[in-house]
Amino acid sequence: MTTWITICDTCKREGWEAGPMGRTDGEVLAELIESAFRDGDLALRRVSCLMGCTQGCNITIQARGKLCYTLGRFEPTPEAARAILDYAALHAASETGQVPYRQWPQEIKGHFVTRHPPLPE
User: Name one Pfam family in it (predicted).
Assistant: First the structure.
């Protein structure tokens, strides 16, 4: 079963306007995740707007029949990208989508925004 990482590529963190404004923070994070991505039970996609603007940078981790999560407030850094991929791999390996806290990568802690129950079959 595939776990999907959906990355908002329109997210802008507070103060974005003060920077070069060439790319959004979401685009930077998406590129970092894509460049660190390796095949497995994971798939990536970009979307324009997850409607979590006050939480940017936002991503979701989803799989059919499993708990799904929205995470945000990431800095667009290689460390955040790696932690997102590492957590998603743990999600993919979990039968229910729930990953014990002690297994979470440090860089993922404090970034959970919502948890969604699996959709009924």
Answer: DUF1636
